[in-house]
Amino acid sequence: MPLSTQLQGDDEQYVLVASLDNARNISNILKAIAFKDHAIFNATPNGLRVTVEDSKCLQANAFIQAEIFQEFTIREDLVGFQVNLTVLLDCLNIFGGTTVPGVSTALRMCYKGYGYPLTLFLEEGGVVTVCKINTEEPEEPIDFEFCSTNVINKVILQSESLKEPFSEMDMTSEVLQITMSPSPPYFRLSTFGMAGNAHYDYPKDSDVMELFRCTKTQTNRYKISLLKPSTKALALSCKVSVRTDSRGFLSLQYLVRNDDGQICFVEYYCCPDEEVE
Amino acid sequence: MKFRGKIVDVACLNHFSRVITTISKLTKMCVLRMTPVHLFFVLSGKVANGGVSMWCELLQANFFDEYQMEGVSAEDNEICLEVTPENLSRALKTVQNAVAVKVKLTKKHCPCLTIAAELPTLSSISRVVTHDVPVDVIPRKLWYEFKEPSMPDFDVSIYLPPLKTMKNVVDRMKNLSNFLVIEANLNGEMNLKIETDLVSVTTHFKDLGNPPWGGDASQDSESQSRDPEAMAEARVDIRRLQQFLMGQQVNPSKAMCNIVHQRVVHLILLHEDVSLQYFIPAVA
């Protein structure tokens, strides 16, 4: 019996019901931001925004638009709650998260409202799993006040070109320095580790550079330990937009294509480490 | 006390080594009992190993082309050894392409099971690889501990779902909790449940079927009077169940589970000539 017909009767009491034919479409994108246990969920009629933060210096958001879901019903303008992301991911992958074509886990996610658990119904090959994940009081995500009008420099790159520097990044360096400039070296990633300094330069007319819009030379440093989790998003994505604003705040936007070819976004904001003269 | 056996057939050798590997996943140490007809791998439920017990039975004739043994005495024609299955498994894995494998009980610096493998060769000079796996000989007076466990008077007996599916579920549940409740009824339904402060998860399996167990009259009458919907349940240490599910390598033709309500979970894997029983005690 498909989940959709089985549970139709209960729907009225839920403020949020979201169904997916393939749970991997959501579990993959959540993996891209899974670096801390606490995840803040905010659902609006447009879809779902999941936020994870670290040390008030790093914020990651995953956006899953309503269209990604086969069903997305919301009875309020805004539904917010907080759950343990590690637990949620284990639940979503309860059947092993198989990648075998033709086999997928169907998901129905329901939430009754404040104080109730987030209920997941998962089905694969006739086996049904029901998970009730306790919810917590949602915290207010930090507003990084990153506004596109204050963006000084912006580049869009094919993710492939950043995977190597990020996977081989010298972790003995405390910071990653990003230089963006209208003149050479245009876009440069630098580390300062025990074995020496390393620079990755991307010329502005490179094939992997899809957009280059730098107005002013800017050099900012970011804690490498804070940026490391974004590697997960990078691995899943096909394009990445790197932006810095007038305060040196960094925004990384990843375009992620799921199993069904639909597009979702993952976004990382990071505070600069210190001013460089 | 003498033992020597010879395996020639590649399929038999592979099968034998798979069985040993499975056992090595279940326990670090176990007892190998050899009789003229059978080989038994036994783990008796001691507190030190979490009260888990195991009984694995092999017909020697299905594995060995030659099998000669002489027990401690004519009336007790058996040999009882304490072995580390991991060591046996490692020795057998390295000789998978052997032409013939001889297994012998030897006395080197200590008692050993010596595995001598004749490897294929292109020249006339033979290549033989020998592994000495140290064992402990168990004296006659301790044998009583290693008898076949009696079939528990279970409340529900049910066929298990595909072990791969069950393993996936149990592996994830292990991430979330240390204990798991396994429950089943006579309507072919089985549930695996965990509950913690953060989450409760229940996986429902249905249409599994219940083994007939026609032979035993007392259990038969009891199970017929039982409400088919009523669940028998046991709370167990997830790690024990996880270990058992690693035993997929045997590709069992039948996998069953008997539950004694709040007492014990009795798991059985049957594969033609091999049977593996595993007992996991319930915890409060």
From TrEMBL, chain A:
<protein>
    <recommendedName>
        <fullName>Cell cycle checkpoint protein RAD1</fullName>
    </recommendedName>
</protein>
<dbReference type="GO" id="GO:0006281">
    <property type="term" value="P:DNA repair"/>
</dbReference>
<dbReference type="InterPro" id="IPR003021">
    <property type="entry name" value="Rad1_Rec1_Rad17"/>
</dbReference>
<keyword id="KW-0227">DNA damage</keyword>
<comment type="similarity">
    <text>Belongs to the rad1 family.</text>
</comment>
<dbReference type="InterPro" id="IPR046938">
    <property type="entry name" value="DNA_clamp_sf"/>
</dbReference>
<keyword id="KW-0234">DNA repair</keyword>
<dbReference type="InterPro" id="IPR003011">
    <property type="entry name" value="Cell_cycle_checkpoint_Rad1"/>
</dbReference>
<keyword id="KW-0539">Nucleus</keyword>
<dbReference type="GO" id="GO:0000077">
    <property type="term" value="P:DNA damage checkpoint signaling"/>
</dbReference>
<comment type="subunit">
    <text>Component of the toroidal 9-1-1 (RAD9-RAD1-HUS1) complex, composed of RAD9A, RAD1 and HUS1. The 9-1-1 complex associates with LIG1, POLB, FEN1, RAD17, HDAC1, RPA1 and RPA2. The 9-1-1 complex associates with the RAD17-RFC complex. RAD1 interacts with POLB, FEN1, HUS1, HUS1B, RAD9A and RAD9B. Interacts with DNAJC7. Interacts with RHNO1; interaction is direct.</text>
</comment>
<dbReference type="Pfam" id="PF02144">
    <property type="entry name" value="Rad1"/>
</dbReference>
<dbReference type="GO" id="GO:0030896">
    <property type="term" value="C:checkpoint clamp complex"/>
</dbReference>
<comment type="function">
    <text>Component of the 9-1-1 cell-cycle checkpoint response complex that plays a major role in DNA repair. The 9-1-1 complex is recruited to DNA lesion upon damage by the RAD17-replication factor C (RFC) clamp loader complex. Acts then as a sliding clamp platform on DNA for several proteins involved in long-patch base excision repair (LP-BER).</text>
</comment>
Automatic annotation (TrEMBL), chain B:
<comment type="function">
    <text>Component of the 9-1-1 cell-cycle checkpoint response complex that plays a major role in DNA repair. The 9-1-1 complex is recruited to DNA lesion upon damage by the RAD17-replication factor C (RFC) clamp loader complex. Acts then as a sliding clamp platform on DNA for several proteins involved in long-patch base excision repair (LP-BER).</text>
</comment>
<dbReference type="GO" id="GO:0033314">
    <property type="term" value="P:mitotic DNA replication checkpoint signaling"/>
</dbReference>
<dbReference type="GO" id="GO:0009314">
    <property type="term" value="P:response to radiation"/>
</dbReference>
<dbReference type="GO" id="GO:0006289">
    <property type="term" value="P:nucleotide-excision repair"/>
</dbReference>
<dbReference type="InterPro" id="IPR016580">
    <property type="entry name" value="HUS1"/>
</dbReference>
<dbReference type="GO" id="GO:0031573">
    <property type="term" value="P:mitotic intra-S DNA damage checkpoint signaling"/>
</dbReference>
<protein>
    <recommendedName>
        <fullName>Checkpoint protein</fullName>
    </recommendedName>
</protein>
<dbReference type="GO" id="GO:0000724">
    <property type="term" value="P:double-strand break repair via homologous recombination"/>
</dbReference>
<dbReference type="GO" id="GO:0044778">
    <property type="term" value="P:meiotic DNA integrity checkpoint signaling"/>
</dbReference>
<dbReference type="GO" id="GO:0005730">
    <property type="term" value="C:nucleolus"/>
</dbReference>
<dbReference type="InterPro" id="IPR046938">
    <property type="entry name" value="DNA_clamp_sf"/>
</dbReference>
<dbReference type="GO" id="GO:0030896">
    <property type="term" value="C:checkpoint clamp complex"/>
</dbReference>
<dbReference type="GO" id="GO:0005829">
    <property type="term" value="C:cytosol"/>
</dbReference>
<dbReference type="Pfam" id="PF04005">
    <property type="entry name" value="Hus1"/>
</dbReference>
<comment type="subunit">
    <text>Component of the toroidal 9-1-1 (RAD9-RAD1-HUS1) complex, composed of RAD9A, RAD1 and HUS1. The 9-1-1 complex associates with LIG1, POLB, FEN1, RAD17, HDAC1, RPA1 and RPA2. The 9-1-1 complex associates with the RAD17-RFC complex. HUS1 interacts with POLB, HDAC1, FEN1, PCNA and RAD9B. HUS1 does not interact with RAD17. Interacts with DNAJC7.</text>
</comment>
<comment type="similarity">
    <text>Belongs to the HUS1 family.</text>
</comment>
<dbReference type="InterPro" id="IPR007150">
    <property type="entry name" value="HUS1/Mec3"/>
</dbReference>
<dbReference type="GO" id="GO:0000723">
    <property type="term" value="P:telomere maintenance"/>
</dbReference>
<keyword id="KW-0227">DNA damage</keyword>
<keyword id="KW-0539">Nucleus</keyword>
<dbReference type="GO" id="GO:0035861">
    <property type="term" value="C:site of double-strand break"/>
</dbReference>
<feature type="region of interest" description="Disordered">
    <location>
        <begin position="210"/>
        <end position="231"/>
    </location>
</feature>
